[in-house]
Amino acid sequence: FGVGMSYTPTSAPLFWGLGFFDYSTAFAIWHCMMALALVLAIYFSAKYLLKQLSAQSLLLTTTLLLLLRPTASIFWFGQTTLLILVGFLLFLGLRNRTIAGFFLGSTLVVKPYTALLLCYPVLRREWRPLAGATVALCLVLLHISCTIGLSSFLHYVERDIPHQLPFYAHVQGNNQSLAS
C-alpha cells in the first residue's frame, strides 16, 4: 500500500474514479459530488428532522447549512463530511429497517469514528439496522480485499501510515481532506 494516502483503505472506493483525471478536474468532480450531497442533506434534513417537506422547511435547512462555517470548509478543503451527514439522515429517516443500517454502515466507510453512531440502535435494541451495517461493512471489506488485497489493508492498520507520510504532506489530526 505504498500510495502514501492518509485515508483508510475502506474509503478508497470514494476516490477510485477520480484517479483517471488530473488533479484540477478530479477536484472539480469531487466538488460536484459534494454539491449533490449538500442538496441531499438539505432535502433529508427537511424531510426527516423537520418532519415536513415544504418550501419553508427547505429554505430553513438551506439557510442553516449554508451559513454554517463547516459547510464552507467542506468545499474549501474537499472534505467528506457531507457524505456522513447524508448517510446519518437516511439512517434516521428509515429507522428500524435493515436498509437504514446499510446507510449507517456506509458512513463507517467514510470515517471510522462514526462507529459511535452504532450505539443508538444498540441502546434501542433495534437489530435490523445493525444487521444492515454489518452487511455494508462486510461488502466493503470484501471489495477492498479483492481489489487492493487483504495484506495491504492489514499493512495500513499495522504500520500507522498517516504518521509515516513525508514531511511535505499536509495532514491535520482532526481534519483530513483531499486538499490536504
Core attributes:
180 residues; mainly alpha; 62% helix
Verbal overview:
With 180 residues, this protein is mostly helical. Helices cover 62% and strands 0% of the residues. It is built from 8 helices and no strands. It has helices spanning 23-49, 55-67, 69-77, 81-94, 98-110, 119-123, 127-147, 150-159. α1 crosses α2, α1 (23-49) runs parallel beside α4 (81-94) and α5 (98-110) crosses α7. The longest helix has 27 residues, at 23-49. The model has no long low-confidence stretch (mean pLDDT 81).
Give a brief outline of the structure:
By secondary structure, the protein is mostly helical. Helices cover 62% and strands 0% of the residues.
Number of helices: 8
The quaternary structure here is single chain
Helix content bin: 55-70%
Strand content: under 5%
Could you say which structural class the secondary elements and strand pairing correspond to? mainly alpha
Number of strands: 0
Lay out the secondary structure.
Layout: H1 23-49, H2 55-67, H3 69-77, H4 81-94, H5 98-110, H6 119-123, H7 127-147, H8 150-159
Helix pairs in contact: 1-2, 1-4, 4-5, 5-7
